[in-house]
Specification:
211 residues; homodimer; mainly alpha
Chain lengths: 211, 211
């Protein structure tokens, strides 16, 4: 497996492990036992994705820890800069990040070579199936109906999540030329991929009333 | 299903949901990616147990949230009084709690009536299979070999975990007479069950060098 392919799987494997920890921590703030159990289930789904990507790396003879290591600083920096301040920020955060992961995986699948395409398609489909979209959308719409003033704060929050995610992704792309090449060419083409992901994010936020 | 049986499953369901959150938080302090992934896997095992117990309650026509609710205060109090201070306390904590859960389930299975017996036996077996005993034992022995002075602090920590767990269990037993009856009779018999669990805990700690 090429170093760039190992990079891609390693980055996604570490991102999903940290999504697990982040979502599990957000679950602790749930306003009800049912909500806590649901967010815990979403966290577990993140761990399962991590596990599948690690298995994929191992199958290709790559040491998972080595593949993940380069992405620890940017992904940790992302989380450190976007700590959720309350239950709704946590909930929206899990929704935003799952959406970005799904769209990134789908767009990247169309660019990379086989057999990575299948791995990315599976990942996108798993995120889409597991990410508890309905639960989060219902909860966010409920809070907006009860307190419309929250919309402004949550809209800002979603833009901050997107902004930090894009800026860390660009940092990685600038550092890992081969990975960037795998994802379409140079920094300009990678930027095009990010624009597509950002557009889909904006559509989802508008649909939620956070446009 | 009797109220006492719903109590027992509800208490275990909430305990395993909180074990998930606690272990996921402890995983964030792991000294390596491999250790973090392993502790995350143990957290996921806790969530799976929660999910199985919730399914069991639903199958018996009991609303899981109602069954869990009475046990939120004592279990939350347990966690609040035993926050782990570092990675090794977290690691030993997950080991101690899994051991208590396993032994409690096994001893209780011998006391309660069918079909609860099977549920408890399954739970004990699942905890035993998943709790990553070897991983934790190796890590603890390694830190003790490197720094024998840590043994005293970890031994105290394990006794504190046990003490708080027993005191919350006794508080629950005093409040829930029917549950206590299900588990052997009166408070004295329930005390006998706790002594057995405490003895097994002490044996495990001695074997680890924390006696």
């Amino acid at each position: 497996m090429s170093e760039a392919a190992a990079d891609l799987l390693g980055a996604l494997a570490y991102a999903s492990l940290t999504a697990f920890g982040r979502t599990a921590a957000d679950a602790e703030r749930a306003p009800s036992l049912a909500a806590r159990a649901t967010l815990s289930r979403l966290a577990v789904a993140g761990y399962r994705i991590h596990e599948a990507l690690v298995a994929e790396l191992v199958r290709r003879g790559v040491e998972p820890e080595l593949a993940m290591a380069p992405f620890v600083p940017p992904i940790d920096a992302f989380h450190a800069r976007t700590r959720s301040g309350d239950w709704f920020e946590g909930l929206l955060g899990s929704y935003v990040l799952a959406g970005l992961a799904e769209d990134f995986a789908e767009h990247a699948a169309a660019i990379v070579d086989e057999p990575l395409t299948d791995v990315l398609r599976d990942l996108g489909a798993t995120v889409a199936a597991q990410h508890g979209r309905q639960f989060v959308e219902d909860a966010i719409r409920e809070v907006l109906a009860a307190d419309p003033a929250v919309a402004g704060r949550l809209a800002l929050w979603s833009r901050r999540l997107l902004g930090e995610a894009l800026s860390q992704a660009q940092r990685v792309a600038a550092d890992r030329i081969e990975l960037t090449r795998l994802l379409g060419g140079g920094l300009a083409e990678f930027g095009g991929l990010l624009v597509q992901v950002a557009d889909r994010h904006a559509e989802r936020m508008r649909a939620l009333g956070l446009g």
